[in-house]
Amino acid sequence: MSSSDQYKREIMNDLARGNTDSLDKMPEASNYDNFDDFAQRSSREERRQLFGKALNPDRIPSTQMEPELQKAIAQIKPNERADVAKDFFKHLKQHHLSDRDLESQLGLSSHHPSHMTADDVTKLAGYAYHNHPDVFHEVLADQPILIRFLSNPLVGAAFGAVAAKWLGHRK
């Protein structure tokens, strides 16, 4: 059994038992009605904490996450996609990676966020997810629109655990 299958099974078993102990440090769930409400009203730090716990290469391998990123990025509006690319470049620059170097290294069609295709932004997101998960989490905290379009079962299981915590606070 792969580690991702095992992780999914553990999450589902924990949910079935009502175990949300691993989520104790998550944002106060009772303040939000649903994910959209959370994405709009939560602080950047709350989102970074949530996405950092739920989405990392140790839990969801790049081979599973990258196709989901491709589908998600293709669904967002071009101006939002440019904002996502701009954030990736900004955060990767802090790791001494220039936009031109990334353009060359990843085979991007442009280093200008507004000229990038969905495929370019997917390559950038996949690179960050695999090589700089901290950057990936920072961008998701700034641009939670991507999360709405992810459909990977492991991502669903991770956010299902969060939903269980939210529902647990509403009793």
Per-chain topology:
Elements: H1 3-17, H2 35-41, H3 44-54, H4 62-75, H5 78-93, H6 99-106, H7 118-131, H8 133-142, H9 145-148, H10 153-168
Structure description:
The protein is mainly α. It has 10 helices and no strands. The relative contact order is 0.20. The termini are far apart. Helix 3 crosses helix 8. It has one domain (31-168). The model is unreliable at 21-30 (pLDDT under 50). The longest helix is centred in the middle third of the chain and has 16 residues, at 78-93. Helices cover 67% and strands 0% of the residues.
- Helix amount: 55-70%
Structural class by secondary-structure content: mainly alpha
| Rounded Rg | 16 Å
Strand content: under 5%
Using the alpha-carbon principal axes, give the shape.
globular
As residue ranges, the low-confidence spans are 21-30
Strand and helix order: HHHHHHHHHH
Number of β-strand runs: 0
Q: How far is the N terminus from the C terminus?
A: 36 Å
* Average pLDDT for all residues: 77
Number of helices: 10
Domain unit count: 1
Features of the shown structure:
globular, 10 helices, about 170 residues, mainly alpha
